[in-house]
Design brief:
Blueprint: H1 13-16, E1 31-34, E2 38-39, E3 51-56, H2 64-79, E4 84-87, H3 101-106, H4 110-114, E5 118-121, H5 134-138, E6 149-153, E7 156-160, H6 169-182, E8 187-191, H7 206-219, E9 223-226, E10 232-235, E11 242-246, E12 261-265, E13 269-275, E14 279-286, E15 290-298
Parallel strand pairs: 3-4, 4-5, 7-8, 8-9, 9-11
Antiparallel strand pairs: 1-15, 2-15, 3-13, 6-7, 10-11, 10-12, 13-14, 14-15
C-alpha cells in the first residue's frame, strides 16, 4: 500500500489538467498555537460556539488501546458534550469483517452511542478487504451515504472521501469539485483515510498534494482530517488548509517532524474541535485525559 496504491493517479491527468500545475507555498500567519499539556476542563459552552466534534481513526481492533482512547473520548464528552465523531477509516481490523462490528465498534463506544453521538465514517484500506467495504457503507452506525458523501452541521460542511486505490476516482474528483463549488458553508472540512502531508511511516503523498491541495485552496477548505498513520500530527497552515492526522485511535507508531509540522506525537489519542464564527479551536487529547496540543485555525478572509 505504501506506493503502489497511488500509481493510478496518473490516469487522472485528463480531469486534473486545470489544477495539477499549481505550486504550494507554506503559510504560517493564519495559525496561533499553544502546546501546554493540561487536563480536560469542564467549560461552559461559549455563546458563539457553532459546533463541537471529535475525530479518531484506525480504531477497529477491539483491543485495550482502542478501549483506552474510547474512555478518554467518553470522559471528554461528559465535560464538553458533543454529538459527532469523524471516523477516518480502518474501522474494522484486519479485513473489514462486518461480523466484528460489535467487538470493534458497538461495544467500545457504547457509552457515546447511548448518548446519541453520531459517527460519520469513511473507508480505510483494511475496510475494503471484505466485499470492497460495501457492508460498512450499508451499516447504519457509520452513517455513510455512499462511498463518498457530504453532510452539514450548522455552518460546517463535511466532505467524506474514499481515498483507497480502487476508488471511483474520476467521478469522485468531479463530485468533490462540484460540491465544493456549490457549498455556501462558512467552514469546509474534508476527511479521508490516507494522508496528504505526513511525517509518519508512509510520508506525504505527492500525487495527493497535486490533486487535492489546489482544490482546497480554490474553494476554501480550512481542514483535512485523516488516519492511516498511527500517530497524531497537525501541520501549520499550508495555502489556507490545516492537515490533521488522528490515526492513533487504537495503536501507535513512531512519527517524526517536517518543516510544516506544528505538533506530532505517537501517543494514543483523539482530536477535538470547537467551531466558532471566526475560528476552529483544535485540541489533542491522550488516554490520560491530558490536552497535549492546542491550535487555532482562523477563518480565511474573503
Amino acid at each position: 500500500m505504501k506506493r503502489r496504491q497511488f500509481l493510478f493517479l496518473g490516469s487522472l491527468s485528463a480531469i486534473g489538467t486545470g489544477f495539477l500545475g499549481w505550486m504550494l507555498a507554506h503559510q504560517n500567519s493564519q495559525s496561533a498555537d499553544i502546546t501546554d499539556s493540561t487536563e480536560i476542563a469542564a467549560n461552559p459552552p461559549k455563546k458563539d460556539l457553532i459546533l463541537r466534534f471529535v475525530s479518531v481513526a484506525d480504531t477497529g481492533t477491539g483491543a485495550k488501546g482502542q478501549y483506552a482512547v474510547a474512555r478518554a473520548m467518553n470522559f471528554y464528552h461528559k465535560r464538553n458534550p458533543y454529538d459527532l465523531v469523524v471516523l477516518a477509516g480502518d474501522n474494522i481490523y484486519n479485513n473489514g469483517e462486518i461480523e466484528k462490528i460489535g467487538t470493534v465498534f458497538e461495544r467500545p463506544y457504547q457509552p457515546l452511542l447511548k448518548q446519541g453521538v453520531k459517527f460519520q465514517a469513511c473507508l480505510g484500506n483494511h475496510d475494503i478487504r471484505t466485499a470492497n467495504g460495501d457492508p460498512q457503507v450499508r451499516y447504519p452506525g457509520f452513517n455513510m451515504n455512499g462511498r463518498y458523501y457530504t453532510f452539514k452541521r450548522n455552518q460546517v460542511q463535511f466532505f467524506a472521501l474514499d481515498t483507497n486505490s480502487n476508488a471511483d476516482w474520476k467521478n469522485q474528483i468531479t463530485w468533490l469539485e462540484q460540491e465544493l463549488s456549490l457549498s455556501k458553508a462558512t467552514w469546509k472540512v474534508v476527511f479521508g483515510h490516507h494522508p496528504i502531508y505526513s511525517s509518519g511511516h508512509y510520508g506525504s503523498n505527492p500525487d495527493f498534494i497535486k490533486i487535492f491541495t489546489p482544490l482546497f485552496q480554490k474553494y476554501g477548505v480550512q481542514l483535512y482530517i485523516n488516519g492511516h498513520e498511527h500517530n497524531y500530527e497537525r501541520t501549520r497552515v499550508i495555502d489556507g488548509t490545516t492537515y490533521l492526522i488522528c490515526g492513533a485511535g487504537a495503536g501507535n507508531r513512531p512519527v517524526g517532524r517536517s518543516e510544516w509540522t506544528e505538533y506530532s506525537t505517537s501517543d494514543l489519542s483523539f482530536a477535538s474541535y470547537e467551531v466558532y464564527p471566526d475560528r476552529i479551536e483544535v485540541g489533542a487529547i491522550a488516554i490520560n485525559n491530558r490536552v497535549f496540543d492546542q491550535g487555532i485555525i482562523q477563518l480565511k478572509s474573503a
